[in-house]
Amino acid sequence: CLKKKVQSRSDWQMTVNSVRRTARAKVNLTLHVTGQRADGYHLLDSLVCFADIGDFIDMREADALSLSVDGPLAAGVPTDERNLVLQAARLFGADKGAAINLSKHLPHAAGIGGGSADAAATLLALAELWDLPLPEDVVRLGADVPVCLSPMALRMRGVGDELSVVPPLPELPAVLVNPRVAVETPPVFKALTQKENAPMGVVPECADVGVFAKWCAEQRNDLQAPAISIEPTIQDALDALEPALFARMSGSGATCFGLCENADSTKELAKTIRGKHPDWWVVATNFS
Ligand code: ATP
């Protein structure tokens, strides 16, 4: 009788009909461009971590596949097949339906992988909802999609398909700043003239944000200067983050981050920046 009860309980647990996932913002603490393949894809070497803020993906079983987009930063995000959420769903090649809602809280075209994080969260949620294995070759959706499937910081190399574990990062209180300019990635890569650059150094094992910030400062984001040449406001965001231990642009911009001593200093810095730039997107957060 007990066995039957356990059996029926596990049967019930396997019937999932709605799922919610957070698509956390990805942050490139470093981003070295180490080469370019003959097919045009760039080779990267990047330490990628995740902020504790993100978009929300909610889905439930339905007869057909559909997507609605809402939330404070939904403006400008495509709701049709261009949306990476729908492209991620199509990659399963399954004849199944789901009603998906994407609530946008991250700015798009911002260098914090909004679309990639949404795609990765969709893949994980649909695998659960449809009880299917993850599709292979998810890097086809975008270089940042494989890393965004991870719950923790990783080193990303190749064209985004080579992921390796790094020592646990220290607590990383941080402020994210986007000066509300959308930056598309292809022109930034195009503006990078030197494609073969030195790789990232070895990620240190340390428990102190100050020591870690010094190591970050010795690394680079090779896309930062080209992005500033296209969108000089990025330099204003970096200047606003000057009181932080260390500041850099993430991805191809325009979002910049500043690592701070503790949570109180992130809140204080965020408040100061918001006071001076009420139209900017400014968030006090934590990276992990
Ligand atoms: P990355 O850091 O990976 O380079 P990003 O943060 O610069 O990415 P995204 O937010 O992914 O850029 O947006 C890039 C483009 O992708 C946008 O201009 C938008 O039209 C399109 N897009 C497709 N799906 C989404 C989505 N779910 N959220 C945001 N943008 C999306």
TrEMBL record:
Pathway: Isoprenoid biosynthesis; isopentenyl diphosphate biosynthesis via DXP pathway; isopentenyl diphosphate from 1-deoxy-D-xylulose 5-phosphate: step 3/6. GO terms for molecular function: 4-(cytidine 5'-diphospho)-2-C-methyl-D-erythritol kinase activity; ATP binding. Keywords: ATP-binding, Isoprene biosynthesis, Kinase, Nucleotide-binding, Transferase. It comes from the Bacteria. The active site is at K26, D144. InterPro entries: GHMP_kinase_C_dom, GHMP_kinase_C_sf, GHMP_kinase_N_dom, IspE, Ribosomal_Su5_D2-typ_SF, Ribsml_uS5_D2-typ_fold_subgr. Residues 218-272 form the GHMP kinase C-terminal domain. It catalyses: 4-CDP-2-C-methyl-D-erythritol + ATP = 4-CDP-2-C-methyl-D-erythritol 2-phosphate + ADP + H(+). This is 4-diphosphocytidyl-2-C-methyl-D-erythritol kinase. It comes from Planktotalea frisia. The lineage of its organism: Bacteria, Pseudomonadati, Pseudomonadota, Alphaproteobacteria, Rhodobacterales. The gene is ispE.
